[in-house]
Design brief:
The protein is mostly beta strands. It has a single domain, classed as Porin (Beta Barrel). The protein has two helices and twelve strands, in the order αββββββββαββββ. It has an eight-stranded antiparallel beta barrel. Strand 10 and strand 11 form a beta hairpin. The protein is elongated. The N and C termini lie far apart (about 35 Å). About 30% of the residues are buried. The model has no long low-confidence stretch (mean pLDDT about 85).
Length: about 190
């Protein structure tokens, strides 16, 4: 596990600090996110959590059609029962990705080591007990794929994230993994 974390940190630092080439881009991105936690196809709650994400990024142009990118992103991932009860895990992630561009359209794949910076349990009764029982892990390693379109400095994109690690630190709730769908805008300079 420590080797995976070290490898991802080295890749991120390499992607961000690579000597600049013409066409490197910096930017911000934000948008809407729809997330839930799944265990063998079953969600922790019947309804997904609708939330937001916000981040910064840098892309290095390797060849005209291929870029490597990295960044820093804040997101809220969780679930809700459709009423007032919901669970939110707050993450800071370091998305690292490869981007292939054909004209204004592009596809991307990558990973996003994520570190939990907080959690919120809005449950009518037993929020403390539920939080203790779930005992969310502090690290997750989702992978993602997405598509987008660039229009001048504006990027419109959609990404889907699959968690690869168990979110719950409690053996009774083992096997739950984050999944989220993002749609957003980016502004690149």
């Amino acid at each position: 596990m420590k080797q995976i974390k070290l490898l991802l940190i080295v890749l991120l630092v390499s992607a961000i600090s690579t000597s600049t080439f013409a066409g490197d881009k910096f930017g911000i991105r934000a948008g809407w996110q729809y997330s839930n936690m799944y265990n063998s196809g079953s969600s922790i709650n019947d309804n997904a959590l609708s939330s937001f994400y916000l981040g910064i990024f840098k892309e290095n142009k390797i060849i005209p059609m291929f870029r490597l990118g990295g960044g820093l992103e804040y997101s809220q991932i969780g679930s809700t029962d459709g009423n007032d009860e919901q669970m939110k895990l707050h993450y800071l992630s370091l998305p690292i990705y490869a981007k292939v561009k054909l004209g204004p359209i592009y596809g991307l794949v990558g990973g996003a080591p994520a570190f939990k910076v907080g959690e919120t349990w809005d449950i009518d009764t037993g929020a403390d007990a539920a939080e203790e029982l779930f005992n969310a892990n502090t690290f997750d390693l989702p992978v993602f794929a997405g598509v987008g379109i660039s229009i001048l400095m504006l990027q419109i994109e959609a990404r889907y994230y699959w968690g690869t690690m168990d979110v719950s630190g409690n053996a009774l709730n083992a096997g739950y993994k984050n999944q989220q769908f993002q749609v957003g805008l980016g502004l690149a300079i």
